[in-house]
Amino acid sequence: MNKDTSSKNLLKPLVETKWLEEHLDDPDLRIVDATVQVKLWPFPRVISGKHKFKRRHIPGAVFADLLKISDPKASTRSFTMPSEEHFAKFMSRLGIYEDSRVVIYDERENMWAARLWWMLRTFGFENAAVLNGGWMAWNLENRPISSKQSVYPTATFTPRYNPDLIADKMEVFNAINQKETCIVSALGRRQHRGERNEYGRRGHIPGAKNVTAWEILDRETKRFRPLEELHALFEPILDAKRVITYCGGGIAASSDAFILHLLGHQNVAVYDGGLIEWCSDHNLPLELD
Length: 289
Known about the structure:
With about 290 residues, this protein is of the alpha/beta class. The chain has eleven helices and twelve strands.
């Protein structure tokens, strides 16, 4: 970001629906829907949320297709970081430039919004926020919706990759026995304990603590829980010098990473490969509870 940007134009990482409705017409604001739909029947798969987006969305929003924005060479269940050039191309098409402000939402549990927020931050863009509660909160409050297709002018997005925000499997492996680094699983408790097997092998990365990406939410509104409750959930983790979050493919992990950032931790990374990568390497250990 431009370091000379006025502080009055800098977004907090989390914004509320009321604020967004009051600022829908701000010329420098870019509203982005990052929804990916997860389908479990007849087999687990992920599909773009663009179809529903076309029917109704927050006025002025454009759609960011994470299935296309993520590394095109990765597994369809993995949303690993793309090259700087690939990411910049899509952000430029969305009209995101150095002095714009970006508010991201999704139709699920904020985790897809958090993922795009983390991607933007990884590529050097700091003036983005997640809409608290996303589409669910917006719709429950009967705020305005639109089916009109919005297009922002094509911009020039300049990426500045920050490798400290992404961990690879070797860093995670080395962190297992490092007291100064805390590994956090954002997966559900049954998956963490090894009662479910979604990634080819059961269990969690040894020593990992479990704060699920669902327990940080109010289930009805999809808003994040109050900060004092989130602080209590993450309290055993906040003292670690470095935190690495993981899940299956980098999405739920981004929610936990987002909350840790919100709580003020300055050294958080997402293990991008997640259990999809970890479980495919049988030399890497897993632990059962």
